[in-house]
Amino acid sequence: MDIESVKNACSAGASQGSTGVSGSGPSGGLYAFDGPAAAVLDHRGAVVRWTGTAEDLTGFRAEEVCGRPVQELVADLPDDLRGATEMPASGRVRLWHKCGDTIDVTFRTTKVGGSAEVLVLAAPTHHVAGHEQGAALLRALSAQNRITIAVHDTDLTTVQTNAAPGTLDGRPVRPGSRLSDVLGAEDAENLETLLRQVLETGAPVIRRNQHVSCLHDPARQQALSLSAFRLEDARGRPTGVAVLYFDNADQMRARRHLDLAREVAERVGGSLDVVRTAQDLADVLAPAFGDFAAVDLAHSVFDGDEPSKQLNGGNMGNAALAPATAVWPAGIKRGESIPPLPDHPLLLSFLHGEPVVFSLDDFIAMVSDPQLVEYLVPKDTHSVMVAPLHARGLTLGAITAWRCGRSDPFTEDEADLMRQIASRGALAIDNARRYTREHRAAVALQQHLLPPATTDTPAAETAGVYLPAGGGADISGDWYDAIALPSLRVALVAGDVVGHGMPASATMGRLRAAIQTLADLELEPDELLTRLADLVQRLAAEAPSGDRDIVGGTCLYAVYDPVTRRCAMASAGHPPPVLVRPDGTAEAVGISPGPPLALSGMPYETTVIDVEPGSVLALYTDGLVERGDRDIGQGLPRLTEALAAHCRPDRALDETGRALLADLADQAPRDDAALLLARTRAVPAADTAHWEIPADPAAVSKAREWITRQLTMWGLDDLLFTTELIVSELVTNAIRYGRPPMDLRLIRHHVLVCEVTDSSSTQPRLRRARTTDEGGRGLFLVSQLGGRWGCRHGQNGKTIWSEQAIHGSP
User: Fold this and answer.
1) Fewer beta carbons below 10 Å: N end or C end of the chain?
2) Across all residues in the chain, what is the average pLDDT?
3) What pTM was estimated for this model as a whole?
């Protein structure tokens, strides 16, 4: 088929309304095309030479077109080319294809040297446009100094690159070189392995982060983002690989900054200890931000107080250093004061809350003392950054970071990052400071509310120990007490208030004061707890409506009498005491616990047990027997075993208490614990005397005779007169107002105790008798002659007692 036949076929198709496949030929991808088509025209515009690529483009063979005017190949000649006498230098036309389609091509012409012939080069327009856009894109990418383009052949030899001197290691990258000529051996090998994989599989690598070191400067590393694509010819055969290297330093730096800021948020502030918080801050900064880091705080901050407004090195001490294994100069020691620094204009930024960056030369110029520089600056330092710890209007201290050796100097971006870190760190440290202040106040309050750790009375020696929750971080309302009572007795108390913190400590103080007051009334244990429960209910009623449910507690109250060697006790929801006998056996005392103090409606029951001298009574709170991994059913046997093992006659009670806490308590218990140990004593039988008083007024004189003989036997003749008067008044009152049976008892220790017991519950009352009164002077005389007197009620009556000091007794 020749050109005329093509034209006739197209004309026929057009007359029949058919458009054929115009536009779907070579331009549509139905025909193979490789490279531009070339043809040579003579001076008349006739084709004289026709290349194979021209045949590929149009489908016409050379013999079909040679000698014919080239206009016959043009399907739609533009107006600007009609009547032209010369071929234009370039243009765009539509050519016929042998199959009848048309092809949109762009052409260029040039004179063939030494003749009138013209060389025409043509290619499909969309190929030309894509080539031009690709070339423009390549030129634009090549002009970017942060994007390095390298084209490698199948042997991974560099064919073309825009890498300039300084891109990698300061040396030019030339065609014909390999990656091993530029990069370190290991990095080059890893990259070539990656590029070979791209060549073999055709799967591209997109934005792979890579750190590489230069061959001639191994210490210098660069962060790159690498993308690699396989290059192919028109038939899909691999011809090489193109690699784009993006300078990823800024992105990596920004990511490191974000990671560092996130780590500060996660790690700093989890502790409420000032020093621990400062150390967490230093550990985050070194070595991630600087090679060394130190946190210095005002001395007052360590104690929870506010720092002075004129903060300088002289009133600051080091709180944290990192890394801990580093070799620090002599002037930077953990816990020691920081030498004061001279005034300098750069320090004004610090005083206004801004980080300050020094080069080593700037720092030396500011200090003006080479010895002080050596004293304060780590070895090989070249850059220093100091940032104030400023929070809530207070400057608490400073963070100092150093960079040494080959590290990059600090930048302004890093100063902004340090400002954020210092702000967050300062808030965390100030929170810890404020907690320290509140905790110190709570501890001081509770220490003043708790009794002495040890007591020594005729009835018992006692030792109490207290363990706050959280290893000292939390103060609560657990307490113990040992109260000396008349007649040589002692009251032992252990209690636990609901809640934690200041409110619990305050409630504990009120309950302890109430128990001491009620103990002076010499109430029975069950009666005392009943009145204490009434007080707790009043406290709950006075509390705000939202806090009423957290006002309450438990209490164990016991009274030991060294004369009878008996102990009476009652419990308000409190765990039972443990009794360790002199032979080393131990058991929990079987008591009937009543309701906790906040509840009412159920009575309390007094339990009385016999106690041998030398026994140890252990009163405790539930924090000692209840832990997260065990309840009281498991903890009480463990406590009993530990008491049996640790309570030895030759061991001091306070030492025993500490050993028990170390053995039983967790490192950071969730609840506080109190323990009271009491080693009982007994008054020897030879130091007591007892008579039954008949209901006869004549018994008064008999009682005086008994008293005279007994005191003479004890060698207390100096107390005969006063004791006779006291006994006469007490026995007279018992006979006159009481009911039998009646008893008179004397107890000798460091005081002489006179007791008269009768079966009446009538409460005696001290009053001042008028001149004309015939009675009412007895108790007044008793109160004046003795050191003190009182009355206590029991289940079967009352006892009126009086004490007199024995001269020469301690």
Assistant:
1) C
2) 81
3) 0.59
